[in-house]
Amino acid sequence: MTYTKALENSARIATLAALVATPIAGSTHPLTPAAGNVVATAQAEKRETADAAADLRGILTIEGDTEAIAEGEKTGRAATAAADQAVAMWPAVRASLAGNGAMANHLTAVDRSIVALRNELGRHSDLRRDANEVTGALAPLFAAAGHKVPSNIHRLDYLGRSITLDVKTGEWARAQRDSNMLASTWQAVRSRVIARPGGGAAAARYDRTVKTVSRGVDSRNAAVTLNATKASGAGVDALEKVFGA
After folding, report:
1. What's the pTM?
2. Domain of 168: which CATH number?
3. Cα dihedral 86/87/91/96 (nearest 10)
């Protein structure tokens, strides 16, 4: 769920708990066991909602910092500051996610990418690539934080940026692998998009993007590929809106 929705749910649960806990006017009887269970359940749900909202906020902050570096929006000192913040935030976010049931292999993948990002800070030779790898590793953790957008859509965003970096560094073999992964990742989530209101148009748009990326990479045409990966970013934004993000 989105952070705003999480807060709405938290408020709803708190109101329910307060109503249940309030005795009927003129009554001196304590809560029945059943009513007490309702209160306990409401309180537990409130804690879970608050935890999920905090986890999502942490993931979004780290992703925002690293995505800005990967896309070249932040460079120099701004990029260093953003990377430092992502590295510093991760241990606390990781501990919370682990406590809330996130899969260990997903957490370990982010661990590795954060270490690589931290090590790159002293060199800055491949900071954009390492920052982007953090965004890719974070993708499956959105589900653990209750985000409504499927993890594969977050992964499409990562792969689009990865192909951009592949082309700019002349790594066409890697671009081919990433292009194939983009296509397979899209096919894995496409049916979920189409099933949503307004999903058909967004899916058709992204179908065209994937085909253009593939054509550009197959022909090693940098201009076509870079235009297509730029369209991929906008297409992912449209896909996220289909899921209410």
Report:
1. 0.79
2. 1.20.120.290
3. 10
